Each structure stands twice: as C-alpha cells, then as structure tokens.
Amino acid sequence: MSQGIKVNSRVLDMEYAVRGPIPQRAAEMAAEGRRIIPCNIGNPQALGQQPIRFYRQVLGLLEDSAAITRERNLRAAGFKEALGNDVIDMAAAMLDGSRTGTGAYTESAGFRFIREAVARFIDSRDSVVSGSTNGSDPDSILLTDGASGGAVYVLEALISDPQDGILVPIPQYPLYSATITRCGGVLVGYHPDEEAGWALGRDNLERPLKAATEDGVKVKAIVVINPGNPTGALLDRQSMREVVDVAREWGLAIIADEVYQENTYGQEWSSFASIIGDEPIPLFSLHSVSKGFYGECGHRGGYLEVRHAPPVVGTNLDMRDILVKQASVNLCPNTMGQFLVHLMVTGPAEGSETHRIFLEEKVRVLDDLQAKASMIRGYFEQMTGVECFGRTGAMYLFPRLGPLPEGQTDFDYCMALLEKTGLVTVNGAGFGQAPGTHHLRMAFLPPFELIEEVMPEWVAFHNGWV
User: Fold this and answer.
1) What is the spatial order of strands in the sheet that 283-288 belongs to?
2) I need a surface site. Which of 101, 108, 138, 263 has the fewest CB within 10 A?
3) Tens digits of per-residue pLDDT, 78-94?
4) What class does CATH assign to 112-346?
5) Could you state, in order of their start, the residue ranges of all structural domains in the chain?
6) In the CATH scheme, what is the code of domain 9-48+358-465?
7) Residues 130/123, Cβ–Cβ less than 8 Å
8) pTM of the shown model
C-alpha cells in the first residue's frame, strides 16, 4: 500500500464548497485561538439556537424508557418539576408504536406509525382530505437520514447512463452536483432570474433543456429547492407552475427539496404536491428536522415522499420499490432521527401548557431569524456595489458583490474576509453562478450581539477591498 492506491475518479471529482477550503482554513484559525463565526452552513444549534424543549424531553424519555414510570409517579405525587402529562404520554405512545424501542433495527422505510403521521401532516398542510386520490400514502413515504439521504437515493436510481442528465438550479446546493458527479451523470444547469427575485420563466428552463438534448443528454428530472439554498429566495406560484408545465411536456420527474418550508417568515408557501395535484407527474419531495425552527441537524432525520412513481423498464417494479430496495441495503434510518420526524409532524397536544411553551419557542426562533436577516440586509446597503435580490427565506442571504478588483474572485474575497473578521462564508462559485457575477452565501444564524459586532467590520473590509 506504500505505492499508493487508485480510487474512484468520480469520488475524487466531487466538490462540496460548504465544507471546502474556506471552512478548513477557519478550523485552523480556531485551533490558533482566533474568533470564528461559522456562517458557512445552516447549523443553528452550533450558533446558539436552543433546542425545542418538548422535542428533547420526549427524546430523553424514549432513550430511558424507565423514566416514563418515574415521571408518572412524580406527577401523581404532585411534584411541580415533573414533566407534563402530554410529554409523558407522547413518549409512551411512540414507544408503543415502535414496538422495539430506540435500539433495534426498524423497517427499511422506517417505522410505519411515523410514516402514517407524516402522511397526515402532508394532507393537513396541503388542505387535502386524507385517503382521497391526491392525498398522501404512508406506503409511498420513506424515512431517511436527513433529507440528503433521500436525495441521494433518488439520484442514484435515476442516473443509469453517462448521458443521463438532471436539471439543477444554478446556484445550487452542492449536494446535488456532488452526487450527480459521483453517479456519473450530467448536471444541466438552469438559471433563475436573479434580478426578478430568482423567479422562473419558461425560457429559463427550456433553453438548457434544448441545449442538453442537442448534445445527446437525456434529462430525466428537475431539482427545485424552495425556499432556495443558497439564495434563500421563495418561489412564487407562477414559477412553480412553469416547473410543472415543463416537467409535463418534457417527461421529467420533479425532485422538490422543501426542507425550509417553515422558514418563510410570514410569506405564503406552497408545496409542489399541491401544485401537481392528481396529475401523473413523478414527484419526489424532501423534508428534514434540520431546519425550520427545530434545527436538529445532528439527529439526521428526514423523509422522502414519492408520488406517481414511474414503472421501472424491464421489471414489474416501480420507483418506490427501487428506493425501498436501496434503503434496505442500509438496513434502516437511525431511530432517533425517525422519532424526531414524528415530533416534527405532530407536536404537543393543543391547549396544554407544553403546547403554549412550544409555540412561544417556535415564534421566538422564527422571529429572531427574520430580524437577523433584515439587520444584515441593512448592512449590505452600506457596502459599495452589493445587492441582495429576492424575498428572505430559508436561513441564507446570497448577496451579489458587484465588481471585484482585477484578477480577484469571490473565493479570494471570502478567504480575505475570513482572515480579517473571522466570518466564515461560502463563495458564490461554490454553488455556481451566472458568468461574470460574484456572490457569497451567509447563514443568518449568529446571535444579534455577534452580528452587531462583526457586520461593521465586514462593511469596512468590503469598502476597502473594492
């Protein structure tokens, strides 16, 4: 082995800027004792966001099931410090539903009772009558290790030939480009209209489709991230209808990354399931416990819903069967992530004291995120040439930096910004961007006092740099 070893070239070619050279340099600086503000990734609890107490209280009882009886006895004895009955009842019901607890393998698609809860959540969210023809089916839901696990399953299954293509928004979350590279497919980029708030028109989608087809690429699916990552922008319903129309006419599946559906800050959001309805357009939709107001990134919980699963050529299977087969190779998703998905789609009993506290925590987190985004956008107005388009959504801002000094790139800018201020961002080229433009992505997660401290430093750095 001293001679070295040859590895899969596709793995070598993968790039993931969110954890690339800039955050790697930040880790070195942190080891030197320098202040680091990690805004390169949507990782709320790393920047001080507190966990939702209801979730952690239930998880604690799930991991230590003997505590359920103890807490019941404390409640009966009148101890005010005891957990609420709704917390205890939720944990007990979830353990009963699981039958095997937290330490055993589950079905490959995840606990059945949780998939049923997810289906009810989706129907309620989309104002659909459960059990109707366009309702959600628990048998078409897979619980996954974060939304990323579901996205990887879908892309691995779809890309069967080196000329198979996936239509991906530019800029895009690098999970998609990295996975397409690893699977040996072709990334076909489409560019939303930045100055129109990252909106989509027919031409934005069909121009790259036609060019790819002329090059012999068979485009199989379109990825849509709503609200956007890295842009944070929220798609309007007209843009969503354009996606559905193009998918219908070109025979594409839709991969709807909807993990930021709670991060809309009072603006209207629609799911792609609600736009498609009962049209036979294949849809793979993703959600996660990592974002929203919960921010439980490390627990790696998510789900993938499949609608109108297309048949698999040469078999009597459909795409859902293939996805379950892929999941079975990994045995099952982690159980605590599955339980958190259940808590995400159910919540505490309405009217209880636990529910009141839960709502207060939820509103506080979302209001703080919106206020921090607004504060940072205000500082952008003090930076020469900087513009930030689109409605605020998700957890990110993606400002366009304007002209940079000759020979300098947005990577150089972000690295210098890190060295000067300790602020860890990701340069726009790491996500893709229109030729001739320069951007960066910043997660608006730091505490208010840290934002107020670092943003004037960034303004001074920027205006000096340009």
Assistant:
1) 141-144, 302-307, 283-288, 253-257, 218-225, 164-169, 186-190
2) 101
3) 777 767 778 878 888 88
4) alpha beta
5) 9-48+358-465, 59-100, 112-346
6) 3.90.1150.10
7) yes
8) 0.90
